[in-house]
Structure formats: structure tokens, C-alpha cells
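Methods: holo model generation. Sequences were used as deposited, without trimming of termini or removal of tags, and paired with ligand SMILES retrieved from the corresponding compound records. Each pair was processed once, and we did not select among multiple samples. The sequence and flavin-adenine dinucleotide SMILES for this entry were:
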Amino acid sequence: MKIVVLVKQVPDPNAVRFDPRTGDIQSGTPQVANEYDLHAMEAAIQLKERRDDVELVAVSLGQARETLNRCLAMGADRAVAIEDATLAAGDSTVTARALAALLRAEGFDLLLAGQETSDGGTGTVGPQLAALLDVPVVSNVVALEERDGVFVAQREIEDGRQVLEVTPPAILCALSGLNEPRYPSLKGIMAARRKPTETKTAADLGLSAAEAQARVTWGPLFQEEETAEGIILRDVDADSAVDQLVAFLQERKLI
Ligand SMILES: Cc1cc2nc3c(=O)[nH]c(=O)nc-3n(C[C@H](O)[C@H](O)[C@H](O)COP(=O)(O)OP(=O)(O)OC[C@H]3O[C@@H](n4cnc5c(N)ncnc54)[C@H](O)[C@@H]3O)c2cc1C
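and the model returned the structure below.
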């Protein structure tokens, strides 16, 4: 059985800072694996641990060597890095097209992705891949097992869980309730050094310039304006406080 896991490297949500002049994310912001993708990776490793015929491949588009190394150290057998400047400003459709081209060549029984990323956050790459590759997709997956070659997935819905069975090939999009991603062990980190990472460009994937061209343009990022400091009335009696509040509101034409 072949399992492919999609992992995106994103700016660390706990450390991200915006450049106030440009609105862009400041250079030097630490990069980490997208959280949901680590849950997808952990689910794949757990499936692999229950069978002895699983090949597990980690795939990323963008500058993601640290993240791919982490996946190899966690237990992936090999990695594929799609690195190409022409895809860097792509929208989620360009991303899905590039990943679909690779996945057509790779083939898979199960494709595990995160539900969404913490940067782009469209939550559309999994469903777009399902449309491009014509395979079923199950979103919001919080539990997964394999029974005789059929994947039984529980997906979170508003009032509970929906249980779905899918036959391979299929795409599942993971939420964090699915499991607790493991930390790579020292043995895993050492073993990862001997595992291969293949690099692909847009041309390797047969993507034309038009297919690598984003149609959605990304506007400037901005930070919410901070609210003005409040006014605290201290040591005043109730009547005076009311008078002051009324005056304050009248002054601003709020009453
Ligand atoms: C600095 C910056 C600039 C950007 N500029 C533009 C722009 O100009 N125009 C525009 O439309 N968009 C832009 N984007 C958005 C970017 O193209 C999307 O982040 C990307 O296409 C993937 O979409 P998403 O993050 O919404 O993925 P989602 O659909 O939220 O991701 C779902 C899952 O798909 C998988 N996945 C997603 N992306 C990848 C990946 N690269 N590699 C491997 N797996 C992946 C992961 O498993 C992920 O959990 C920009 C993003 C950033 C951070």
C-alpha cells in the first residue's frame, strides 16, 4: 500500500511578525510544519506500523527541507520536494495542479493532507486534488482505521461524528483531534539522513507556464489597528461618574 502525506512549511504561528511598512511577514520568521499536516503524518505512520507493506512518502511544495526532514525522522520512507520559483506566487489552484501532476506520476492508495494551513488557510487544496484526480475526499477527519483494505474515517460534524467508509484511492483531510503527533526520536533523526529526498520543478511535472500562473492575486496583509487606550474613572462618586460618562459620550456625539 502506498500512502502519500502532503506537508506544507508555514511561518510559525506563535512567532509570526508583520513588517509594518510592507505588510509582509518579516524575513527571518521561524518556519514550521503546518500543524494539521503533522496529524496527517502521524495517522500515516500508525497505519504503516500495523502493516508491513506500506510505503510512506512525504511531499511538499515550497521551501520545506526542515519539514520534510522532520517527516523522514518521524517515519516516512522518502520525500519529494517541489521547488520552483515560478510556483512561489501561485494560488491554491496552482498548488493543487502541481501536486496533482506529481501524484498522477507517483500514484497512491491513500493521500493524507491537513484540513487547512495556518498561512494561506483556504482549506481547498485537498478537495481540489480530489476533483483533479477524480478520487473521493473526506474532510475534517478525527479518527481513522483500515479494515481489510477499506478506510473507515470519522469526520467531525456540527453535532457529532459521521462515519464514512472509502475504498482506495482516496484523500483524507486531517484535523488535530485525529492523534498526537510523535516527536522524532534520535534514532529516527539519524535514520532520516540516509533516506532520499527527490527534487522536482514545474517543468519536471509537465506544468505549462499558463498552469503555473496564479489567477487570484494576493492583497496586502495588514495588522488590526490597536484600540485606543481606555479611560478609567477612579475615586469618583456614582453621580459624578455618571456626569463624566454622559459628558464623554456627548462630546463624541454618541448620545
Ligand atoms: C507569503 C505568501 C504569499 C502568497 N501569495 C499568494 C498570491 O499571490 N495569490 C494567491 O492566491 N495565494 C497566495 N498565497 C497563498 C498560497 O498560494 C497558498 O498558501 C497555497 O496555494 C496553498 O493554499 P492553502 O495554504 O490555502 O492550503 P489549504 O487548502 O489550506 O491546505 C490544505 C492542505 O493541503 C496541503 N497543502 C497545501 N499547500 C501545500 C504545499 N505547498 N505543499 C504541500 N502540501 C500542501 C496540506 O496538507 C494542507 O494542510 C500566498 C501565501 C503566502 C504565505
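The pocket of flavin-adenine dinucleotide is lined by residues 6-8, 34, 36-37, 60-62, 89-92, 95, 113-114, 116-117, 119-126, 214, 216-218 (CB under 6 Å).
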